[in-house]
Amino acid sequence: MPEDIALPLLMRWIHIFSAIILIGGTVFIFAVLRPVLAKASTPEEGAKLRDSLMKRWKLFSHFGILLLFATGIYNLMAVIGHKTDGETTVDSFYILLFCAKFALALAVFALVFIATSTMKWSESLRDKKGLWWLLLAASIAVVFMANIMKFVSHAP
Which residues constitute the domain of residue 10? Predict the structure, then answer.
């Protein structure tokens, strides 16, 4: 493998892997964990287990967000910096998509912070199904936009 593609390939892989972990974790929490905890023998037992699991998930999700942010900026710079015959190959539609994806990703990050918070202020929010549906829908939209961006960046 040529050295000039090793780092971009690694960064893209880390970016995609982090997204898979975050979205997969969100689906697991929403579709599997929450319903099981709702059927705990006592509400206190369910809350205690949920808080313990969310503290652990917070480590993964916050580190994943950091990786997504860092590798996303790197990947953007790699696409923008790619030149053919002295001119950049990125058009304004790609930049528009990036800005929309970035804004939506920031919203996803904020929702993850709310969902994983163990602070008292977030308790009423993180227990609402709507938060998890919104988090899931926004995550899927970010992935959808990323796929469009991938095709746009390689368009002739």
Answer: 3-153
**pLDDT of 91 strictly over 90:** no
* DSSP codes, 19-85: HHHHHHHHHHIIIIIHHHHHTSSSHHHHHHHHHHHHHHHHHHHHHHHHHHHHHHHHHHHHHHH-EET
Judge whether 44 and 50 are in contact, CB under 8 Å.
no
Question: What share of the chain has pLDDT > 70, as a percent?
Answer: 90
Q: Kindly state the helix (H) or strand (E) to which residue 128 belongs, with its residue range.
A: none
- The amino acid that residue 52 corresponds to is S
Digit-coded pLDDT (tens) for 126-145: 778 888 899 999 999 999 99
The count of domains in the chain is 1
Predicted confidence band of residue 153 (pLDDT cuts 50, 70, 90): low
Q: What angle do CA 78, 102, 56 make, to 5 degrees?
A: 100
Nearest by Cα to 108 from 74, 72, 82, 154: 72
